[in-house]
Design goal:
Radius of gyration: 24 Å
Oligomer: single chain
Strand content: under 5%
Number of helices: 13
Distance between the termini: 44 Å
Structural class: mainly alpha
Strand order of the largest sheet: 1-2-3
Number of strands: 3
Largest sheet: 3 strands, antiparallel
């Protein structure tokens, strides 16, 4: 059970906590280019925390009144509700980030959340299909597993062949394919851009898909006014030419649809049901490392800000080597 935190001191004159959360979310969106998924997650976690503070101590509390003991007590309530350590860790990460911004803007003297230890999480290494399994999946996309085989083959080729994220894939526009340089411009997290090589297999799949894409748009009566820059389109071209729609969103395939496409094809080809688009990204990094690629080169290709993030792939390959050793070496038995 959680232990109650100390009482908060009397509230000080400042903007309401809900307003400060809203201000921070605007900073994340406008200055840091956070994705819609990140914004929803931070909004959920921060509103949950300020609701907890308001319920126990009143709505007019100042962030200066909040101490690390109150944050720790809030995490205790999450455990009491049956949430996993990973959920509590996500909540703490959001609160830390908010307090860091509050400190930088002078609204608090120090980041109280920095004094709260992150819950220790079990290390679950993602299950990565073998090179042979991935080749079988990508090379055998047919009508039995795909509603638009040419498009879905190109999707798999880019996810596995280029190691890009699901959101990066769905955000691609036609102009991002640089055929002359055999590269793709990727807009990653925080609006950071990078180029990734476009391999022969991915380029061939893209050309096949683009021919079908053009034919479908022509059949739908696409005009210059209704043209969409989106590279990957939904099957029925929903939203094409929709008035009031966001620029570039017309008929664009969603991340949720890509996840369904990947899972359906993977299951039909004998892979585990827990395969998702990020599995292909893990496979990209792991297989490059297994074949001798430099870790820093993989970091650049994946768009990781820190090398420590990329180093997870060394854990993957080490775990695989240990499994091979345990199966084959006579002294391991």
């Amino acid at each position: 059970m959680s232990t109650p935190a100390a009482s908060l001191p009397a509230p000080m004159a400042t903007a309401p906590l809900e307003s400060l959360v809203a201000d921070y979310l605007r900073v994340l969106a406008n200055e840091r280019g956070a994705s819609a998924h990140t914004l929803r997650a931070y909004e959920r976690e921060l509103n949950g925390f300020v609701s907890y503070i308001a319920k126990l101590y009143g709505k007019d509390q100042s962030p200066k009144s909040i101490e690390h003991t109150h944050i720790r007590a809030y995490l205790g309530t999450l455990y009491d509700r049956g949430l996993a350590k990973s959920s509590a860790a996500r909540a703490l990460a959001a609160i830390r980030s908010w307090f860091k911004w509050l400190a930088r803007t002078g609204l608090v003297e120090q980041n109280a959340a920095a004094l709260v230890a992150t819950p220790r999480l079990p290390k679950h290494l993602p299950r990565v299909p073998s090179i042979e399994q991935m080749n079988r999946v990508v090379d055998s996309v047919g009508e039995d597993a795909a509603s638009w085989p040419a498009r879905d083959t190109a999707i798999l080729e880019l996810l596995y062949g280029c190691g890009i994220r699901n959101a990066e894939l769905t955000g691609l526009n036609l102009e991002d394919i640089h055929w002359a340089n055999e590269a793709i411009l990727i807009r990653g997290k925080g609006q950071k851009q990078r180029y990734v090589p476009l391999g022969d297999a991915a380029a061939e799949a893209l050309r096949t898909y683009l021919a079908e894409r053009a034919a479908r748009l022509a059949a739908a009566g696409e005009t210059k006014e209704l043209a969409t820059p989106a590279l990957f389109l939904n099957l029925r071209l929903r939203g094409l030419g929709k008035l009031g729609g966001a620029v570039g969103s017309q008929a664009r395939l969603t991340t949720r649809s890509v996840a369904r496409i990947v899972k359906r094809i993977a299951i039909r080809r004998g892979l585990s049901s827990d395969v998702h688009p990020h599995t292909l990204r893990h496979a990209f990094g792991t297989h490059l490392l297994e074949e001798g690629a430099d870790l820093r080169a993989i970091q650049e290709l994946l768009g990781h800000e820190r090398l420590s993030t990329t180093q997870r792939y060394t854990q993957l390959t080490t775990a695989q080597l240990e499994a091979v050793y345990d199966r084959t070496h006579p002294r391991a038995r």
